[in-house]
Specification:
By secondary structure, the protein is an alpha+beta fold. The chain contains 3 helices and 8 strands, in the order βαβββαβαβββ. It is globular. The termini are far apart.
Length: 150
């Protein structure tokens, strides 16, 4: 199955699209990972939303953040999530490869910084990201800052 990939500024999202994004993030980050945190962090409005659609079902999402929003001087990719129903099909890798290219295209910066959940460190390393800090806790979950220079 092929997903349809879109990259949309916040103000251009449909109500249904925004709802699907919030629903997927809540399904995985709040319910599945049992993490109580403030998802609505005022960064969505400043971001592009990169989505993988299976018809009208959101299979995967991440947001592309401009330089300075999450990390000083560099863009970031955050809230990376794949629906449990679409895991193990390679969509997370495909999304990240496309999101990296879109981030560089949108922001023109060859360095992308992410805050990766520690258990995904090897996945991000396989995409070229390199750890650039020590492990830290974010909302009770171990994370590590990583950078990609493209």
């Amino acid at each position: 199955m092929q997903l349809t990939w879109t990259c949309t500024a916040f103000n251009s999202l449909t109500n249904a699209g925004l709802y699907a994004i919030l629903q997927l993030r809540n399904e995985v980050f709040v319910v599945e990972q049992n993490c109580v945190y403030q998802d609505a962090d005022n960064k969505d409005q400043l971001s592009y939303h990169f989505c993988g659609w299976d018809g009208d079902v959101l299979a995967a999402h991440c947001r592309l953040l401009p330089p300075g929003i999450s990390y000083p001087g560099h863009p970031s990719i955050g809230r990376v999530v794949t629906s449990p129903r679409y895991r193990k099909a390679g969509y997370g890798r495909q999304m990240m490869q496309l999101a990296i290219a879109a981030t560089i295209e949108k922001f023109g910066d060859p360095v992308i910084v992410i805050g990766a959940q520690l258990y995904l460190k090897e996945f991000y390393q396989s995409l070229g990201f390199v750890p650039s800090g020590e492990m830290y806790l974010e909302d009770g979950i171990p994370h590590i800052t990583m950078e990609l220079t493209h």
